[in-house]
Specification:
KAE1/TsaD, globular, alpha+beta, 6 helices
Length: about 200
């Protein structure tokens, strides 16, 4: 008899993107729908408005994630959500939804560190065993590595973070923020160097 793979339903809503994904324990991504809150040019995204956006889109994303993955709530083994770091109000949306679904579906909850999740995704994609990471997500620019049973920060910036710098530069060039900062499908289709630089999710 084939052993069942454990499956998690995960929620990420730490900034202006809300995403709900279904992933197997071996790292196989079964679905990953998401929706980005985009503000007018020159304006940042504020916590309250961002949280309202997430509230509006999170339940349709749950439905889409389950349907795309071809799984039912009964087949989900645990519910994961970004516990932090991130923007407080947007983070609360995922936290509340996960707690409600946990009660309805009788599933355990796993809180996930935003920074560690980025690193672990990179490990899965690249196959790296013990990487030293330059972490440039959003407001963070840090050199991180695994040591003595945990990820540790070996250095970080004290000025503007690289992620924010790329976001600002992409806005100056009027590159889209959907699905990631600076992503432009036309530039990508033309294999333009700028699309390859700014397509990286920061």
């Amino acid at each position: 008899m084939k052993e069942k793979k454990l499956i998690a339903l995960g929620f990420e809503g730490s900034a202006n993107k809300i995403g709900v994904g279904v992933v197997a324990i071996d790292g196989t991504i079964l679905s990953n729908p998401r929706h980005t809150y985009i503000t007018p040019p020159g304006q940042g995204f504020l916590p309250r408005e961002t949280a309202q956006h997430h509230h509006q889109h999170v339940l349709p994303l749950v439905k889409s994630a389950l349907e795309t993955a071809g799984v039912t709530p009964d087949e989900i083994d645990c519910l994961c959500y970004t516990k932090g770091p991130g923007m407080g109000a947007p983070l609360q949306v995922s936290a509340v939804v996960v707690r409600v679904l946990s009660q309805l579906w009788k599933k355990p909850i796993v809180g996930v560190n935003h920074c560690v999740a980025h690193i672990e995704m990179g490990r899965i994609v690249t196959g790296a065993v013990d990487p030293v990471v330059l972490y440039v997500s959003g407001g963070n620019t840090q050199v991180i590595a695994y040591s003595e049973g945990r990820y540790r920060i070996f250095g970080e910036t004290i000025d503007i973070a690289v992620g924010n710098c790329l976001d600002r530069f992409a806005r100056v060039l009027t590159l889209s923020n959907d699905p990631s900062p600076g992503f432009d499908p036309i530039l990508q289709a033309n294999n333009d160097i700028s699309s390859r630089v700014f397509k990286v999710s920061v």
